[in-house]
Predict the 3D structure of the following.
Amino acid sequence: MKGIDIAMNEDVWLSVTGLRNDGVVVSRGNTTELGNFNKVQLYKSCLRNQEIALRTFNIGGLAVIPSILAYIVIWLLTPRGFNHATLTEEDLILMYYLMNKIKVNWVNVIREHLFKVGKKMEYRIPYVILLSSFIKYFEIDMEGEVTKEVNALNQISAVNLTKIGLNKNEE
């Protein structure tokens, strides 16, 4: 980047983000850690009315907590610029892990999402503060670059996360 070689190894991830490269890898088709995971059963268990006939994994009929979780997955953790109304298999797997408090390999989730951003125009970069931290860590000169300051409108406060039932714990 800008003539500076950067290596995104485990030490860098831990130093910049505090995240270790461990936990379950979330990816489409990777359900080995899930045992008898069934995306249709998971989706039906998240619905307000479980008697509805399934055509797609639409978020419109989800109960409150799964709906909030779907929002967090689709818009914040792994945002895309298309079809926010339908959950993908990866979305459902990630929701399952989060709902069942299974340790997720967040380094892998972020890295894979950034690869998708580089390959496909419909994916978005949600990690502005994270990327800024990497730029500071590697002491990359940003003089002459277009920048935008992060303000309160760009952040989700801890208070708002607590209000919707998300709390930090030891796990």
